[in-house]
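The authors assume throughout that readers already know how a fold can be written as discrete tokens. Each protein is reduced to its one-letter sequence and a matching series of backbone shape codes. I therefore recommend that a typical entry be quoted early in the introduction. For illustration, here is how one protein appears when written out as sequence plus structure tokens:
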Amino acid sequence: MDWKVRRKHAAVLERETGYIRKVWGTYNTVCLAYPNYYRTGMANLGFQTVYKIFNEQSSFLCERVFLPDPGNDAEYTSGTAEIFSLENQKPIIEFDILAFSLSFENDYPNILKMLDFAGIPLLAKDRSEHYPLIVGGGIAPTLNPEPLADFFDLFILGEAEEALPQFCRYFEEARLLALERQELLKNLQRKTSNIYVPSLYKVNYSIEGRIQSIKPCEVDLPDKIKIQHVRDINSFSTEEIISAPQTEMEDMFLVEVNRGCARSCRFCAASFVYCPPRFRNKAEITASINRGLERKKKIGLVGTAVSDHPDLIHICGHIIAQRAQAGFGSLRIDRINEETVDLIKANGIETVALAPEAGSQRMRDLLRKGITEAEIIHAIELLVKKEITSLRLYFMVGLAEEEEKDIDAIIELVKKVQSHILHYFKGKKKFRRITLSINQFIPKPKTPLQWCALADVHEAGKKIKKIKNAFSKDKQIKVIHDVPKWNYIQALLSLGDRRVGELLLAVNRLEENWAQALKEVNVNPDFYVYRQKQFDEILPWDIIDLGVSKEALVSEYRKAVG
């Protein structure tokens, strides 16, 4: 192992609190991979939770690996097992299991890059018994695993707390029985919930390129992968395990307060993946907070509907009483009241994030946001009266049925917000900034808007430019946005089927040159991205059953767009 890499790994561990290092020997070994940089991966609570669960299994050892930092690639030689785990600095090719935690589709090319660094064949069919079992999990493959199907031996989908220990038990039994990999995979698919082995399912296509069928290769395999959800999230804690400086959100100890969301906004995948909505009770959250306060003085409350928690005021009050701060993401606009704003001020929060998502009522109703312009303005007034000095507002463009007047409505709404702010701050402390975060709508699997086509990225770019130009001379309003061309790639990886894997192989071979890969591979990306899907066609992700019927999603789609 390169001494520079060894020294860097040792320096990282010296800065961390809470990591687990077991002695190699009789354990089943797992290398948990995050296909992005360390500073990003260590801020992911799901990644840390899986690390904890694996290490809680008495016969398992779990270590971590991340994508090498930019500029350090030269220290890793492709094809010679020169990528090492963090804790014991073992080549990842030597582990029994290599498990990827996957939250974002745009990280998919990094999976192949890391396999290449380790000298592990990219395609599952090319790997012998001597290579690690390649496992994937996280919200991205739970929504649609098919673009990655050819690279993974199996996926563990949905929530990990019950599915992962179950997988570990069967894996250990198979090793004791000396089962070969294919027999192990078949047994896992037959006996365990939340497991999907792509090689055991055959996809047939029509002449037009649509999916005709997705069928199991053997009669005793399930027709669909039914995802079991954890019923009682109070039976375990989900909190930061490893604290480390030089990472995103390094100043906050992360604590999960809820899963799922009863709002069921039609664009939001989390509402449908993590159903039904569940809230941890105050006692469990307080216990996690108290453990966190031993390390840090700021607690990050994490969840899909934090502001809907019935005990949020009391939870934050407990944090403040300990002379610490609570941090949370965007707040539901209709949850902002005098008590909430007083809480925000007491926590020393200067910037509040809100998500109107659309400027016109027509578009907000299409999204099922459940808020009116009057409620937006009322929330703003409550915040500025308490001298909140910065706001961040989230909007989307490129929605179904969107017209130019809906873009104008975003501009007009922001101007109204600014007018109310200036009225209340007149002669007082100066208001600092409104930041507009403008993102293109990307249809997500398993949501009511999954049948929509992505809006043309060039047209979406023009709409973003119109909003930027409207405020180009206003120093108080800053517009930030994503890059339209990457929205196209994200949509492709979100909505694609197994054939998209050919593009990922080409992108890896061409060192992330997407433009060249799209030219070389005989796969039409527009087929997935710009095509309106039909209700009666089989979609790539229909193999996964999250417990929400297709009929229910169709009904919601029709309510949205008619």
Observations:
- The radius of gyration is 24 Å.
- Residues 1 and 82 are 7 Å apart (CA to CA).
- The first strand starts at residue 28 and ends at 34.
- The chain has 20 helices and 19 strands.
